[in-house]
């Protein structure tokens, strides 16, 4: 909370109740001691689901959901701050609060399906997302999972999704597939529906939730009720969702790195207190100062992105893509620099520092691989350039006589 307090004047939409709720979340997570990363995955998974359900019972799942849908209608930025607090404790708590990928159902599902799933999410259920396929998650427009027509207007979906998280824990899946007309569409499928089968793979980080392959063998969908968005709107649904979801991921990652920062600072101070170190050397002081600045700057950018998304500003999409890549890289590089300052004590299998590093490395892939995000950000910056950008440059154009263009900017 010390890390977030200085941001208070910048967030006038948050009332003192919001800050008190954040402090309670922090205290609750302090009490709910996590089993270490070296215990069985099933134990961690059950623990994480239990934490989510407990926090949902205290209203943390539906904090930003509109009152008309049973939520507390708090500003979107309060969810980002909750994510930061969760990340501070453990990056595996990234789904402990909020709707997560279940937010896909809020804006774009039919009323009956939306209300049914919102009730489940409010009680602590999880909704997973199944988009990535073997040809590459960075090319969702090329997915091959396909729906075929079945009797009584039903669709049957078949295909294989890879590198999917929350496999055994999700109560439902938002699956991206080609509809019978070949357009990319999205639908919610209950995890208990026939035709779903999953196979776990051991990840090198973010191992709290199960992860691996989700296979669909003629999984039934009712296009009249189960579609997220209209038929063929899958890519737009995906983009809009991630414009809001990515800054939350980024805030969680930055929370994890800030937690490492605090742990390292305290360990160094304690070593001086007990006489293990005569003083803290300059390299450590510089690392603490620089990373405090870079983590805070990246957090501010992620909060600005959340605010843009909350206001329905189209620029949220660009900010979310480049901000996720930048924020997670900033978090990872901070942990890379800070963790060695306490030596090998931070490299044991059960060290939260080693865990944060492995989890942040996993986030370089999850929710968008970084070169792809930067590349698509660059593309947006070129194609959506406002006219005045060209009018304020003073470069000579090639048609001007004797003009010499610079070889690089
Ligand atoms: C911990 C974790 C959790 C995840 N959770 C989920 C989940 O819940 N649901 C889900 O659907 N997915 C999930 N993913 C998958 C994630 O979204 C993908 O890993 C990510 O989108 C990148 O896809 P990919 O791994 O297939 O890599 P690719 O898309 O194959 O990209 C690999 C590299 O190839 C590059 N590349 C792409 N095209 C070209 C080209 N033409 N020439 C040269 N290089 C190219 C990319 O830029 C990148 O550098 C998760 C991944 C991880 C690690």
Compile the SSE list and pairings:
Layout: H1 16-31, H2 41-57, H3 76-89, H4 104-108, H5 111-122, E1 127-130, E2 146-149, E3 155-165, E4 172-178, E5 184-190, E6 196-200, E7 211-221, H6 234-273, H7 282-310, H8 315-338, H9 352-362, H10 370-383, H11 387-392
How does this structure look, described?
- With 409 residues, the protein is an alpha+beta fold.
- The chain folds into 3 domains: 5-122, Butyryl-Coa Dehydrogenase, subunit A, domain 1, CATH 1.10.540; 127-233, Butyryl-CoA Dehydrogenase, subunit A, domain 2; 235-383, Butyryl-CoA Dehydrogenase, subunit A, domain 3, CATH 1.20.140.10.
- Helices cover 46% and strands 12% of the residues.
- A 4-stranded antiparallel β-sheet has the order 2-3-7-6, with no helix packed on it. The chain has a 3-stranded mixed β-sheet with strand order 1-4-5, covered by helices on one side.
- β4 (172-178) and β5 (184-190) form a beta hairpin.
- α3 runs antiparallel to α7 (282-310), α6 packs antiparallel against α7 and α8 runs antiparallel to α9 (352-362).
- The protein starts with 15 loop residues before the first helix and ends in a 17-residue tail after the last helix.
- Residues 389-398 and 400-409 have low confidence and may be disordered.
- The protein binds flavin-adenine dinucleotide (FAD).
């Amino acid at each position: 909370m010390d890390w977030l307090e200085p941001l208070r004047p910048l967030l006038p939409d948050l009332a003192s109740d919001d800050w008190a709720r954040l402090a309670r979340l922090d205290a609750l997570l302090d009490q709910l001691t996590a089993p270490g990363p070296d215990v069985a995955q099933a134990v961690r998974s059950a623990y994480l689901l239990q934490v989510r359900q407990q926090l949902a019972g205290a209203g943390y799942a539906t904090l930003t959901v509109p009152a008309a849908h049973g939520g507390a209608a708090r500003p979107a930025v309060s969810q980002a701050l909750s994510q930061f607090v969760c990340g501070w404790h453990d990056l595996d708590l990234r789904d402990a609060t909020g709707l997560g990928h279940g937010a896909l159902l809020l804006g774009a599902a039919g009323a009956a399906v939306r209300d049914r799933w919102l009730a489940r999410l409010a009680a602590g259920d999880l909704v997973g997302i199944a988009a990535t396929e073997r040809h590459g998650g960075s090319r969702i427009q090329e997915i091959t999972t396909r729906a075929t027509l079945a009797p009584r207007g039903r669709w049957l979906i078949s295909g294989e999704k890879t590198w999917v998280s929350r496999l055994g824990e999700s109560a439902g899946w938002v699956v991206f597939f080609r509809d019978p007309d070949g357009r990319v569409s999205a639908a919610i499928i209950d995890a208990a529906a026939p035709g779903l089968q999953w196979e776990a793979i051991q990840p090198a980080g973010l191992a709290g939730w199960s992860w691996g392959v989700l296979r669909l063998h003629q999984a039934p969908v009712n296009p009249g009720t189960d579609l997220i968005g209209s038929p063929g709107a899958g890519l737009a649904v995906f983009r809009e969702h991630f414009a809001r979801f990515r800054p939350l991921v980024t805030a969680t990652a930055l929370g994890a790195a800030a937690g490492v920062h605090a742990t390292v600072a305290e360990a160094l101070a304690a070593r001086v207190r007990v006489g293990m170190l005569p003083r803290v050397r300059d390299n450590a002081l510089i690392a603490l100062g620089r990373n405090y600045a870079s983590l805070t700057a990246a957090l501010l950018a992620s909060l600005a992105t959340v605010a843009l998304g909350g206001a329905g500003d189209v620029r949220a999409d660009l900010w979310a893509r480049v901000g996720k890549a930048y924020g997670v890289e900033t978090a990872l590089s901070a942990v890379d620099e800070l963790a060695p300052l306490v030596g090998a004590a931070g490299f044991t299998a059960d060290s939260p520092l080693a865990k944060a590093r492995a989890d942040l490395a996993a986030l370089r892939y999850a929710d968008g691989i970084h070169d792809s995000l930067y590349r698509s950000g660059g593309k947006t910056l070129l194609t959506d350039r406002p006219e005045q950008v060209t009018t304020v440059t003073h470069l000579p154009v090639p048609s001007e006589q004797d003009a010499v263009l610079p070889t690089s900017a």
